[in-house]
């Protein structure tokens, strides 16, 4: 009988492999719970939503925080996801010395079409365990924004968020980190298309 065991990587091992050029530069990968995950390629609707967010978010956030897109956040002991967007605290070195960690993170955002189940089932407990207070999923299937807040740990040892709020694609949503700043979702969500034709 043969037993196979998945090799789980530490953050240090993952960083070393990256430094050695083990992963091709155009590989879209992230370290999740010690496993190196190949990220799915982005479809047209996903890419369009990313472009719209890239246009809107910098105008809203300005200099009050740092906005990063598809860049690593470090979640010890063995995760380094690259969310579609993260709003992080400003830091003098602009994170040259290390990637943002959970105490630096004000809001994490994922754009989800084919990755929706993964962003809900894997990323919710991951971000909640790290103590990230607010997590948004731009759900392109249902054409709404899912806002998660207040991370918790239940009696079975599972992490999640106490609150889930749905915001429709034609509504405004205030940034949890800056309640005086709002994002107009009608400027972010692409027109609803028939996914079977994409």
Can you walk me through this structure?
- This protein has 198 residues and is an alpha+beta fold.
- The protein has a single domain (42-197), classed as tt1808, chain A.
- Helices cover 20% and strands 31% of the residues.
- It contains four helices and ten strands.
- The chain has helices at 11-19, 44-61, 116-121, 123-129, and strands at 29-32, 35-38, 66-69, 85-88, 105-112, 134-139, 144-153, 159-168, 172-175, 178-184.
- It has a six-stranded mixed β-sheet.
- The chain is globular and about 45 Å long.
- It starts with 10 loop residues before the first helix and ends in a 14-residue tail after the last strand.
Give the SSE layout.
Blueprint (H helix, E strand, L loop, with lengths): L10 H9 L9 E4 L2 E4 L5 H18 L4 E4 L15 E4 L16 E8 L3 H6 L1 H7 L4 E6 L4 E10 L5 E10 L3 E4 L2 E7 L14
Parallel strand pairs: 5-6
Antiparallel strand pairs: 1-2, 3-4, 4-5, 6-7, 7-8, 9-10
For the sheet with most strands, the description reads: 6 strands, mixed
Q: Could you say which overall geometry the principal axes of the C-alpha atoms support?
A: globular
Order of helices and strands: HEEHEEEHHEEEEE
Instruction: Kindly provide the name of the CATH class.
Output: Alpha Beta
Amount of helix: 10-25%
| Helix count, DSSP H or I runs of 4 or more residues | 4
Mind telling me the CATH superfamily name?
A: tt1808, chain A
CA radius of gyration is: 17 Å
Poorly predicted segments: none
For the residues shown, what is the average pLDDT? 88
